[in-house]
Design a protein that fits this description.
With 365 residues, this protein is α/β, with parallel strands linked by helices. The protein folds into 2 domains: 117 residues, 2-Layer Sandwich (Enolase-like, domain 1); 226 residues, Enolase-like C-terminal domain (TIM Barrel, Alpha-Beta Barrel), CATH 3.20.20. 40% of the residues lie in helices and 18% in strands. It has 14 helices and 13 strands. The protein has a 7-stranded parallel β-sheet. A 3-stranded antiparallel β-sheet has the order 1-2-3. α8 links the parallel β8 and β9. It starts with a strand and ends in a 6-residue tail after the last helix.
Length: 365
């Protein structure tokens, strides 16, 4: 096969909370008529003023990819990493382009992507529903309603973003435990690396009694000794987002984490994420599949990764299609009784909906 063209489609979608999230959909075309799709997901974590102008980004990606065989994953991901080594949006850009490569070669072979990763060891895996950070106690009631609604759908694992208002956090957790007991799993308390060490320890000592499965990103992570101190002071398993193989090794060496939180966006694609799974297996580190709240294309990629990796130890976070009111595929990723179902069919097992892309088109970039 030979890559002939690439297009970038900026879109924005509304979450059920009302917030708007930008993404870029990547379509990759080949001389053989195969089109693959990828996704640069959830780009609102940085200022979109810093996102490269889309015409320039398209030309840069075409310089790397045009005329090349999409099955040269090793060579092409190395060139992507050289061009986008680090910095705001670089991992997202690399990931979106690489996902389109995987979809293209799997479609050409007529197989799901997980077959290219060695085959599937599971056809679904458990995921949690996120409860976003509360800044006031009057937000507790609405989030308890979300828990009740999801429990009614068979969704019984939740992740709480905490730290903006500890009174609200504690009230929410107490109400959930009072109403549901251990029928609900508080899969993680996610601090998003916002608090310094001592504040994180003091806060978690208030919250840990509500029996979270683990704590996630509990403190600022610019000091590995601080991360280890939080882990030791709380006695809880700690997970952390990993953005490179080298960082994963540093976390293990410093005994700073128990669990690698692995997401394709954070690692910059499937090729890098697979290496991190190998490191986890070699060091006895547990894993889970994280999220940046992807649409269905990005979520499907996470699911294919989870289908093929034997050492997947905890419920994941890939619940984006449950949150967004719009998507860009004909049939979005499916969930059942708290599990995300790995899509079947060639590539990601999804079909891009051009009308939905046009209806949700955004103007950034």
């Amino acid at each position: 096969m030979e890559i002939t063209d690439l297009q970038l489609h900026p879109v924005h979608t509304r979450r059920e909370t009302g917030s708007i999230t930008p993404h870029v959909i990547v379509t990759l075309e080949t001389r053989e008529g195969i089109t693959g799709v990828g996704e640069m997901s959830d780009l609102g974590h940085y200022s979109l003023q810093d996102f490269p102008p889309l015409p320039r980004l398209r030309e840069t990606l075409l310089e790397i990819l045009r005329g090349r065989d999409p099955s040269d994953i090793t060579g092409l991901t190395a060139r992507l990493a050289q061009t986008f080594p680090s910095g705001p949006f670089h991992n997202e850009i690399r990931c979106g382009a690489e996902l389109a490569l995987w979809d293209t070669i799997a479609r050409n072979a007529g197989v799901p992507v997980y077959q290219l990763l060695g085959g599937k060891v599971r056809d679904r895996y458990r995921v949690c529903y996120p409860i976003f950070r509360m800044r006031a106690t009057d937000e507790v009631a609405e989030n308890l309603r979300r828990v009740r609604d999801q429990m009614g759908l068979g969704q019984d694992a939740f992740r709480l973003y905490w730290g903006a208002n500890l009174e609200a956090d504690e009230r929410f957790l107490a109400c959930v435990r009072d109403e549901y007991g251990d029928r609900v799993e508080i899969k993680s308390l996610d601090g998003s690396n916002q608090l310094p060490r001592d504040e994180a320890i003091a806060a978690l000592r208030r919250l840990i009694r509500y029996r979270p499965t683990h704590i996630e990103s509990p403190c600022q992570r610019d000091d590995l000794a601080d991360m280890r101190a939080v882990r030791e002071a709380t006695g809880a398993a700690v997970s952390e987002h990993v953005t490179s193989l080298q960082q994963g090794y540093q976390f293990v060496e410093a005994q700073a984490v128990d669990i690698f939180n692995i997401s394709l966006v954070a690692m910059g694609g499937l090729a890098a994420a697979r290496k991190l799974y190998a490191l986890a297996e070699a060091t006895g580190t547990k894993t889970l599949i994280g999220t940046t709240q992807e649409l269905s294309i990005g979520t499907a990629a996470q699911l294919h990764l989870g289908a093929a990796m034997p050492n997947l130890d905890y419920p994941g976070d890939a619940a984006g299609p449950l949150l967004y009111q719009q998507d860009v595929v004909h049939q979005r990723v499916q969930y059942h009784q708290g599990y995300a179902l790995v899509p079947e069919g060639p590539g990601w097992g999804l079909e891009l909906d051009p009308e939905a892309v046009a209806a949700n088109r955004a103007s950034f970039g």
